[in-house]
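Thread: "does anyone have the structure for this chain?"

Original post by V.I.:
We have the sequence but no experimental structure in hand. Need at least a predicted one for the grant figures.
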Amino acid sequence: MRRRDGWKLGIILVAVIVSVVFLYVTPFNLGLDLKGGVHVVLEADESATTVTNENMAGVVSIIERRINALGVSEPLIQRQGTRRVIVELPGIHDQQQAIDTVGATALLEFKDPQGNTALDGSYLRNVQLGQDRYGQPAIDLEFDREGVQLFAQLTTRFQGQATTIVLDGVELQTVMIREPILEGKAQITGGMTMEEARHMVVLLQEGSLPVPMKIMEIRNVGATLGQDSIDRSFRAGIIGVILVVLFIGLYYKSPGFVADFALLIYIVIVLGVLSAINAVLTLPGIAGIILSVGMAVDANVLILERIKEEMADGKRLRSAIEAGFSRAFATILDSNITTLITAAVLFFVGTGGVRGFAVTLGVGILASMFTAVFVTRFILDIVVDRRPDTIAKHFGRGGVKRS
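Reply from O.Q.:
Generated one for you, tokens below.
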């Protein structure tokens, strides 16, 4: 190996080692089609309020924030028509938990002794998980400037009487007002578990839905089918890679095995990058990986065929390799950029599995360019330094011209 190529070896080693570390430390998250979960269809209740495009956009935004706050990986939230929203929650199998998260309007109300709403959750400035004086889970509320005034009016006017705290029409707590509360702080207590309190904090922090939503459909997606899909997909991928590696190695001989080695490095880097960015693996995502493997193979074949053509024209081995990589690069770059544009469009316009396909395809394309143009060239140069006659023979010439 030439001394000036040491930095190339360093880059390759770092890329491989970092990829392997991420693969070991960070397991893949699986999407709904592979992990199983809950599928929910919500529909706006037009009897309660007027449904507008802005209201429905607000519903989608709030549901997204609620689910993200609970840490559900790669949920699918998309509108269907003008009044419906589809929600898919990978890894969630409790239907009631899904209903409480995505279907709850989360309208918090403070009612006076006559049952009239004195103020609601729209005046909240801060909601936090806390503890009552007995150390039990509680929810600490803090109102904004206008809410402070309304709460002060409520507690001053009805001092010595009871106020009721209601969430989505369900009474949470009835509190006796012993003295006016002027600082705009309150606490909800009463027999909640830590999980129930945390869930309520999420709902109140993200705000109430602008339109009440009805559950039209809710069903579980089984994980057994997902595991079967994973097994079948990986078997197909492994078989495909083995067949491709054997074909390239047998057809191109030693240059083909160089390309095979670069392809294995490519697979490690792709999986490492997907693991590093915490990508969620879906069945379309696996398809994207397999497709990108095909494109990586295509890039290597294109380079090797270009080198063969240059050798057939009578060029020396190193000159043929230089010209082959140079001429193939423009074609590889053009095809990969157009595919990257397609992947970008799918990512920004698509949802769910389509976005997973776009992510894996995009990462695969970038990695294939790196390995085909950089790694294959580096390894081929090393092999040429040691066995120039063998490489020249396998490229279609019995000997090598030396300068």
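V.I.: this helps a lot. The radius of gyration is 31 Å.
O.Q.: and The mean pLDDT is 81.
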